[in-house]
């Protein structure tokens, strides 16, 4: 929930790929800021959706969960999932939900995921005036994927709020990315045995403090 004196945070959570922890970090940000949450494109509805997951993981009563612009059955790239249902994802469907609260928007997969022929996720996010939080999960190859993501954001003049490292601390990776790019670094996530509302509540204060709240 936003206090009257603070500027609302408008964050877009992207990642260096799919399954890197965007939903987990979006839930932490949503809880930390008592923000609203919006997942504009959901590809894959079973066993659950990211909106339902974040709703389950968030404890505060203020967050509002805005309906997806596109809910697609197939857990695949959005351009394929949409085509399977004879749906064409349209750029003008990406209008931010009307809210004065902090807002956390979660992408699908990585930054350059295709939505429709000639249309990438980055194309529809860029005009929305969001600041990006990039999630970098550790695996061999993640340095390259992280630098490519940051370079693509810079080339499109999309502002980067910061980077979250997800996984056991890996100094050789984290130090190189930090020094090479100079991007701000948010609190890190450790590998967790269980991801529950209690896990999210444990991380939220450090993120809240990082945002100066
Ligand atoms: N630090 C962690 N500890 C334990 N499990 C994690 C961690 N980070 C992510 N996971 C788990 O990995 C899986 C993939 O994470 P998540 O759903 O957040 O990915 P995503 O980037 O949001 O994917 P998508 O592109 O489908 O939105 C989930 O089961 C999540 O709970
Ligand atoms: C279904 C999956 N979990 C994500 N929602 C979508 C991932 C799209 C990846 C497309 C790609 O980069 O090849
Ligand atoms: Mg997700």
TrEMBL record:
<comment type="similarity">
    <text>Belongs to the dethiobiotin synthetase family.</text>
</comment>
<keyword id="KW-0460">Magnesium</keyword>
<comment type="subunit">
    <text>Homodimer.</text>
</comment>
<keyword id="KW-0547">Nucleotide-binding</keyword>
<dbReference type="Pfam" id="PF13500">
    <property type="entry name" value="AAA_26"/>
</dbReference>
<dbReference type="GO" id="GO:0009102">
    <property type="term" value="P:biotin biosynthetic process"/>
</dbReference>
<keyword id="KW-0963">Cytoplasm</keyword>
<comment type="pathway">
    <text>Cofactor biosynthesis; biotin biosynthesis; biotin from 7,8-diaminononanoate: step 1/2.</text>
</comment>
<comment type="function">
    <text>Catalyzes a mechanistically unusual reaction, the ATP-dependent insertion of CO2 between the N7 and N8 nitrogen atoms of 7,8-diaminopelargonic acid (DAPA, also called 7,8-diammoniononanoate) to form a ureido ring.</text>
</comment>
<feature type="active site">
    <location>
        <position position="39"/>
    </location>
</feature>
<feature type="binding site">
    <location>
        <position position="23"/>
    </location>
    <ligand>
        <name>Mg(2+)</name>
    </ligand>
</feature>
<dbReference type="InterPro" id="IPR027417">
    <property type="entry name" value="P-loop_NTPase"/>
</dbReference>
<keyword id="KW-0093">Biotin biosynthesis</keyword>
<feature type="binding site">
    <location>
        <position position="50"/>
    </location>
    <ligand>
        <name>Mg(2+)</name>
    </ligand>
</feature>
<dbReference type="GO" id="GO:0000287">
    <property type="term" value="F:magnesium ion binding"/>
</dbReference>
<dbReference type="InterPro" id="IPR004472">
    <property type="entry name" value="DTB_synth_BioD"/>
</dbReference>
<keyword id="KW-0479">Metal-binding</keyword>
<dbReference type="GO" id="GO:0005829">
    <property type="term" value="C:cytosol"/>
</dbReference>
<keyword id="KW-0067">ATP-binding</keyword>
<feature type="binding site">
    <location>
        <position position="106"/>
    </location>
    <ligand>
        <name>Mg(2+)</name>
    </ligand>
</feature>
<keyword id="KW-0436">Ligase</keyword>
<feature type="binding site">
    <location>
        <position position="50"/>
    </location>
    <ligand>
        <name>ATP</name>
    </ligand>
</feature>
<feature type="binding site">
    <location>
        <begin position="106"/>
        <end position="109"/>
    </location>
    <ligand>
        <name>ATP</name>
    </ligand>
</feature>
<dbReference type="GO" id="GO:0004141">
    <property type="term" value="F:dethiobiotin synthase activity"/>
</dbReference>
<feature type="binding site">
    <location>
        <position position="192"/>
    </location>
    <ligand>
        <name>ATP</name>
    </ligand>
</feature>
<dbReference type="GO" id="GO:0005524">
    <property type="term" value="F:ATP binding"/>
</dbReference>
<protein>
    <recommendedName>
        <fullName>ATP-dependent dethiobiotin synthetase BioD</fullName>
        <ecNumber>6.3.3.3</ecNumber>
    </recommendedName>
</protein>
<feature type="binding site">
    <location>
        <begin position="19"/>
        <end position="24"/>
    </location>
    <ligand>
        <name>ATP</name>
    </ligand>
</feature>
């Amino acid at each position: 929930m936003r206090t009257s004196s603070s500027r609302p945070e408008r964050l877009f959570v992207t990642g260096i790929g799919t399954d890197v922890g965007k939903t987990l970090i979006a839930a932490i940000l949503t809880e930390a800021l008592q923000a609203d949450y919006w997942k504009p494109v959901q590809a894959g509805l079973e066993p659950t959706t990211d909106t339902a997951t974040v709703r389950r993981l968030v404890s505060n009563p203020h967050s509002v969960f805005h309906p997806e612009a596109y809910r697609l059955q197939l857990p695949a790239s959005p351009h394929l999932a949409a085509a399977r249902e004879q749906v064409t994802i349209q750029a003008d469907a990406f209008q931010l939900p009307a809210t004065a609260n902090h807002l956390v928007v979660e992408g699908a997969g990585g930054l350059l995921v295709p939505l429709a022929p000639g249309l990438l996720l980055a194309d529809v996010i860029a005009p929305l005036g969001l600041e990006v939080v990039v999630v970098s999960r550790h695996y061999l190859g993640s340095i390259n994927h992280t630098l490519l993501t940051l370079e693509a954001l810079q080339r499109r003049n999309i502002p980067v709020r910061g980077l979250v490292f997800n996984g056991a601390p890996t100094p050789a990776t984290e130090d190189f990315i930090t020094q090479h790019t100079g991007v701000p670094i948010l609190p890190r996530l450790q590998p967790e045995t269980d991801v529950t509302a209690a896990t999210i509540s444990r991380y939220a204060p450090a993120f809240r403090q990082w945002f100066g709240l």
